[in-house]
Design a protein that fits this description.
6% of the residues lie in helices and 40% in strands. The chain has 468 residues and is mainly beta. A hairpin with a 5-residue loop joins strand 40 (446-447) and strand 41 (453-454).
């Protein structure tokens, strides 16, 4: 059984950190400086003041790369990427609240970033932001203007498309298209020995918005937001996912820092090898308006969530998403009930998959309010609640439409709709808040060509998902 993440992704995390460190310590040579300093390249760079500040045009070097010391830029300035880049690295960009530094395509052009031919070695990330704050990155007008093309070669699982690392926060990603590679958008900070700011609860990463992004064809997760390791062994420089009782004597363990205030919305995810939208270690998380389909292509039971609310998450709200036609489970929840945290899964359309529908495996007596969702044609049960990790408080389940579970086989008994195990419990709605349960789509009376909305005379009544 999965407990947040497996060791395979730990390896990728370590590789990414090592590569990022190697890249970010590289200094800019004279040619690279001429690409980023406007006074050295007046023909290529527009420096007219705007409401947002000066604009600069940045172009690739002879190898298609761009490494930028962002400390030379000021809040409100605009960095226009022009051309085709094999790799882009921004270090130390520092905008300000209400006046971010903007990284976008040059007006009227399409910027392409990444190396589809990468098969190993350095430069394993298409675009990277290291220790950057108050930044907005993406297409000027649409996602077709800012395109990231990841590796398509053997070893592509170790390639990262778009990364935020080393305390990067107060960040907005919008209007971006990402194809292929290993992991789509990756955003977290690894603990560093001797640096207390990388160790929870000494600091947080605040304010991340990701919206209007299309990700397809990643070998691993499309979204990897927040640190999945419960602890980090500073002595071995490796993640640890178990209970503190299993710590190795004499070695130092800390917890990675968390994100705070993350919103992931209006994105599309398709044809991925692992989880669609994976999150962890976040306080105040909202995921809404996303479409996730064809995830879990590796058929790995440890990496198979359409949307995953991972360990150490608190105060989460997952609503108005459309998750369908994938391998694995539609929504997975591993969140925490610590400090009275609240969790909501509301008004999502979840249908047609190979595993269970919504699976809850939270900690610290977490309580999830599961309301007005339609969960239809699941390979296993509609809703599984597992108390094994301490999620033993009663879950609130009301106004949902559970339609045709166990399409992969098995008797549709009462527990095919809501299945509890290992001390888990549930409070179902009654009267006008009762859940509706149907053995077939036909019995439910819904229009499968219109987001499972009820037809005239449908038995759903007021239960289930509604389009807004």
């Amino acid at each position: 059984m999965r407990h947040y993440i497996t060791a395979r992704l730990s390896m990728f995390t370590f590789v990414s950190f090592a590569l990022a460190l190697a890249i970010t310590t590289e200094s800019c040579n004279k040619d690279q400086l001429s690409q980023v300093l406007p006074e050295n390249n007046p023909a290529e760079t527009a420096v007219k003041p705007t409401v947002g500040g000066k604009q600069y045009t940045l172009v690739p070097d002879k190898d298609g790369r761009l490494v930028v010391d962002g400390s030379i830029y000021k809040a409100g300035e605009i960095l226009n990427l022009k051309g085709t880049f094999s790799a882009v690295v921004f270090n130390n960009l520092k905008g300000a609240s209400g006046s971010p530094i903007i990284v976008k395509n040059a007006s009227g052009t399409v910027v392409k970033i990444g190396n589809p031919s990468w098969s190993g070695g350095s430069w394993a990330t298409a675009i990277s932001f290291v220790n950057c704050h108050y930044v907005k990155a993406g297409g000027e007008k649409s996602k077709s203007e800012f395109v990231v093309e990841g590796s398509t070669q053997a070893g592509k699982e170790a390639y990262f498309d778009f990364t935020l690392s080393q305390h990067t926060d107060n960040f907005e990603i919008a209007n971006v298209t990402i194809h292929n590679g290993g992991t789509g958008i990756w955003a977290k900070t690894d603990p560093v020995k001797g640096d207390l700011s990388t160790q929870y609860p000494n600091s947080y990463m605040d304010n991340l918005l990701i919206h209007d992004v299309a990700i397809s064809g990643t070998n691993n997760e499309a979204f990897y937001i927040g640190h999945t390791a419960l602890y980090w062994n500073l002595t071995a420089n490796a993640p640890y996912y178990g209970d503190p009782s299993g710590f190795t004597s004499g070695q130092q363990y800390v917890q990675p820092i968390k994100w705070r205030n993350v919103k992931i919305y209006n994105n599309s995810v398709s044809n991925g090898g692992a989880d669609g939208i994976q999150t962890a270690a976040i306080d105040k998380l909202e995921i809404y308006g996303n479409t996730v389909t064809s995830w879990g292509g590796q058929h790995n039971s440890g990496h198979n969530g359409g949307i995953l609310i991972g360990g150490r998450t608190t105060n989460t709200n997952v609503h108005d998403n459309y998750v369908h036609d994938g391998w694995g489970e539609l929504i997975q929840f591993y969140g925490s009930g610590e400090n009275g945290a609240t969790h909501i899964i509301r008004n999502n359309l979840l249908r047609d998959n190979q595993g269970d529908g919504v699976s809850l495996r939270g900690t610290d007596k977490a309580v999830v309010q599961i309301t007005n969702n339609t969960i239809a044609r699941t390979g296993g049960v509609s809703l599984r609640i597992n108390g094994y990790f301490g999620m033993t408080a009663a879950q609130i389940v009301k106004d949902n439409a559970f339609i045709q579970p166990r399409v992969s086989g098995g008797t549709i008994a009462p527990n095919a709709y809501i299945y509890t195990e290992n001390g888990a419990s549930v409070i179902e709605g009654t009267g006008t808040e009762a859940n509706s349960k149907f053995v077939s789509v036909a019995a439910a009376g819904v229009d499968t060509n219109n987001f499972y909305q009820p037809k005239s005379g449908s038995a759903l009544l007021t239960t289930g998902y509604r389009t807004n």
